[in-house]
Design brief:
Elements: H1 3-8, H2 16-28, E1 34-40, H3 52-55, E2 61-66, H4 73-84, E3 89-92, H5 104-111, H6 113-121, E4 131-134, H7 141-149, E5 167-173, E6 176-182, H8 193-208, E7 212-217, H9 224-236, E8 240-245, E9 269-270, H10 279-289, E10 303-308, H11 315-323, E11 341-347, E12 350-356, H12 369-383, E13 387-393, H13 400-411, E14 415-421, H14 432-443, E15 452-454, H15 466-477, H16 483-496, E16 501-502, E17 505-506, E18 509-516, E19 521-526, H17 534-548, E20 556-561
Parallel strand pairs: 1-2, 1-4, 2-3, 7-8, 8-9, 10-12, 10-13, 13-14, 14-15, 19-20
Antiparallel strand pairs: 5-6, 11-12, 16-17, 18-19
Helix pairs in contact: 16-17
C-alpha cells in the first residue's frame, strides 16, 4: 500500500458506543465548568482518549490517576510531573480501597476557586459546579464514581429478605436514559407472610418492566429457585438479560458460567458487581432490548414528592390509597419499609412521583446496620424531592423526632406540607382540628410557613385535597421575583419600619435581588452585615411572603456587604 493511499484512509478505531460518547461530549462540553479525566495509573498514556485534549481545550482540567496501588510509585511520580508541567492538576487514587478519593472535592474546589469567587460576587452562593467525568472503558470509572457519590442503589447485605420493596434508579447508557428496578428476592414457594408480599412486589415489577435482568451467582451455580424464577420470567414475554454475578477475575470467563445456559435465557453475561467487570456488555444488551424512545412516556415534568416521617405513621398506607394498588408492603411492624420506593401518579392536577421512605428513627434506636442505610436513603429521598410530606400520627401527636424529620426538609430548602394522618381515630368536637393545628404550629415554629392537612389514609378522608396543595407549594418554592419588584417591596418595608442602628450607625440596604429558586433565595446588599439582625430579616421575609402569598416554602437571605467603609 502506498503512503499516499494510506494517508487518505479514515480508520474508525473506536467501538460504536465510544464514538457516541465522544459526540455527546462535544455537544455538552460547553455546559460544564471543569473536566475530570480518569486514567489507569499503570498505563496513563495508553488509557487516554487522544481527542480529550482537543475536546476539553480551555476548560480547567483534573486528571485522576486511578489504580495507583498497582502502579510503580516512581513511574507515577514521573507521570504526575509530566501532566503538571502542562498545567493539569493531578489526583492519585485507588478507587477500590477508597485511598485518595476524599481528595477529589478539595482538588475541584482549588481548581475552580476563581470561578466560585466570581459566582459568589454575583450573589450566586453555593451554586452547583458542573463537572464532566471522562475515561475509556475499564479504567475504573464505575468504581470511582460509586465511591465519589457514596450512593448505594440497593442495600447490600448477606441477610435474606433485605431488599423488600422495589427500588427505582435512573441509569444512562449510550446516551439513553432508563430506569433500573431492584426487587426483593423472589421465593417461588414460601408460606412466610413477608416473603409472599415480596414475591407479589416482584411480580408487579415484572409486569411494569420493559426489560428484565435476572441476576444469578456463579459460585452457587444454577439452583432450583433460579430455574423456577427463569420459567416464571419466560412466561412474561419480556426481554430477559441473564447476569451471572461474582465473576471477579478478568480474562476468560469461568467454566461454571456455561452451566447457566441451562436456564434457556440465551447467552449469560459474566459480571462482577464488586469490581464492575462486564457491566458494559450487559448494559449494551439492555440497550438493544429497550423499546424505541418514542414509545416511552417521559416523566421529567413530574413533581417529585418525598413522604417522610417516623416509622408506622402510615406513609405506605397513604401511597397505597393514592395509587389505588398494593404498591408497597404495609405492616403494623415498625420499620417494614426499609427502602425508598417510587410510585408515579397522574391526575387532573398533573403528574407526580411519590417517594415512600423508610421511617426515620432516632439514631440511638438505629441499631441494625441495614436500618442505618435506610435512614440514609430516606434523607437521600428528601434530597431528590421537590416537595416533602411530613407525616404525623394524629393518635400520638407531635414528638421530638417529628421535629428532626421536618428540620431536615427545612434545611434542604424543600417545599413542605405537614400531613396529620389517622385523623379518623381521633375523638372530635367542634374545635378539635383548630386546637390541634394551633398546638402543632407551636411545635413547628421554625417552619411557620408550612400548611397542614388532616386526613385518613385508611378511609380516604381529605386525601383528594393533597395534590392541589402539593402543586401549590411546589409553585411557591419555584417562584421568581424581578429585581424591580423586590426593590419596590424593600422601599415600602424600610419606609414602614426603619432598619436597625447601633451606636449611631444605621443599617443601609442598597438593593435586593433573587439569584435562585427552590427555595426562593434573596441576596441583600448592605453597608454593615452585623447590623442586619435576624429580627429585621424576618420582617422583610414576612413582607415578601405577604406580597406573593408564599406558603409551604422556606425563604433564604444571603447578606453581602457592598461597602464597609460607608459607616453613615
Amino acid at each position: 500500500m502506498s503512503g499516499s493511499n494510506y494517508e487518505k484512509m479514515n480508520i474508525q478505531w473506536f467501538p460504536g458506543h465510544m464514538t457516541k460518547a465522544q459526540r455527546m461530549i462535544e455537544d455538552s462540553i460547553k455546559q460544564v465548568d471543569a473536566v475530570c479525566e480518569i486514567l489507569d495509573a499503570r498505563i496513563p498514556n495508553s488509557s487516554r482518549n487522544p481527542d480529550i485534549d482537543r475536546l476539553a481545550s480551555g476548560k480547567p482540567r483534573l486528571i485522576i490517576l486511578n489504580r495507583t496501588d498497582l502502579a510503580d510509585p516512581k513511574i507515577t511520580a514521573q507521570w504526575r510531573a509530566f501532566f503538571e508541567a502542562q498545567g493539569i492538576k493531578i489526583l492519585e487514587t485507588d478507587a477500590k480501597s477508597g485511598k485518595g478519593v476524599n481528595g477529589f472535592a478539595p482538588a475541584l474546589r482549588e481548581l475552580l476557586k476563581d470561578k466560585i469567587a466570581d459566582y459568589a460576587a454575583k450573589g450566586q452562593v453555593n451554586r452547583p459546579m458542573r463537572v464532566m467525568i471522562l475515561g475509556i472503558p475499564n479504567v475504573g470509572k464505575s468504581t470511582l464514581f460509586n465511591k465519589l457519590i457514596g450512593k448505594r442503589l440497593s442495600i447490600v447485605e448477606n441477610t435474606p429478605g433485605v431488599t423488600r420493596d422495589r427500588i427505582y434508579a435512573k441509569c444512562e447508557w449510550r446516551d439513553r436514559a432508563f430506569m433500573i428496578v431492584d426487587t426483593g428476592g423472589i421465593e417461588p414457594t414460601t408460606e412466610d407472610v413477608i416473603l409472599k408480599q415480596m414475591r407479589e412486589q416482584a411480580q408487579l415489577a415484572i409486569e411494569q418492566a420493559d426489560v428484565i435482568i435476572l441476576v444469578t451467582d456463579v459460585r452457587c451455580g444454577v439452583t432450583a429457585d433460579d430455574s423456577a424464577v427463569a420459567n416464571m420470567l419466560q412466561k412474561s414475554g419480556k426481554p430477559i438479560i441473564l447476569a451471572v454475578n461474582k465473576c471477579d477475575k478478568i480474562g476468560e470467563p469461568p467454566m461454571e458460567l456455561y452451566e447457566f445456559y441451562n436456564l434457556g435465557l440465551g447467552d449469560p453475561f459474566p459480571v462482577s458487581a464488586e469490581h464492575g467487570h462486564g457491566s458494559g456488555d450487559m448494559l449494551d444488551a439492555v440497550y438493544d432490548a429497550l423499546p424505541p424512545e418514542s414509545e416511552l412516556e417521559e416523566q421529567d415534568d413530574a413533581i417529585r414528592v418525598a413522604i417522610i416521617g417516623k416509622p408506622n405513621v402510615g406513609k405506605s398506607s397513604l401511597v397505597n390509597r393514592i395509587a389505588g394498588e398494593q404498591r408497597v408492603i404495609v405492616s403494623n411492624v415498625a420499620g417494614t419499609t426499609r427502602d425508598a420506593t417510587d410510585t408515579t401518579v397522574e391526575n387532573e392536577e398533573g403528574k407526580f412521583v411519590l417517594i415512600d421512605t423508610a421511617g426515620i428513627r432516632r439514631k440511638s434506636k438505629v441499631t441494625e446496620k441495614i436500618e442505618q442505610y435506610s435512614v440514609l436513603r430516606a434523607y437521600m429521598a428528601v434530597d431528590r424531592a421537590d416537595v416533602c410530606l411530613i407525616v404525623i400520627d394524629a393518635t400520638e401527636g407531635f414528638t421530638e423526632q417529628d421535629s428532626k424529620v421536618a428540620g431536615y426538609a427545612h434545611e434542604q430548602g424543600k417545599a413542605s406540607i405537614v400531613v396529620v394522618n389517622k385523623w379518623d381515630l381521633v375523638e372530635k368536637d367542634g374545635k378539635t382540628m383548630q386546637n390541634f393545628e394551633e398546638e402543632l404550629r407551636g411545635h413547628f415554629s421554625f417552619m411557620s410557613y408550612v400548611p397542614f392537612l388532616f386526613l385518613s389514609a385508611k378511609t380516604g378522608q381529605r386525601v383528594s385535597k393533597l395534590f392541589g396543595m402539593i402543586k401549590d407549594v411546589y409553585q411557591q418554592n419555584s417562584i421568581r421575583v424581578t429585581t424591580g419588584t423586590l426593590n419596590d417591596i424593600l422601599a415600602y418595608a424600610t419606609t414602614r419600619v426603619q432598619p436597625p442602628s447601633d451606636k449611631g450607625r444605621r443599617l443601609k440596604i442598597y438593593y435586593m435581588t433573587q439569584p435562585s429558586t427552590n427555595p426562593p433565595t434573596f441576596v441583600v446588599f448592605v453597608n454593615r452585615a452585623d447590623l442586619f439582625h435576624f429580627s429585621y430579616q424576618r420582617y422583610l421575609e414576612n413582607q415578601i411572603r405577604a406580597s406573593f402569598g408564599l406558603t409551604g416554602t422556606p425563604v433564604r437571605f444571603v447578606v453581602r456587604e457592598r461597602n464597609r467603609d460607608d459607616q453613615s
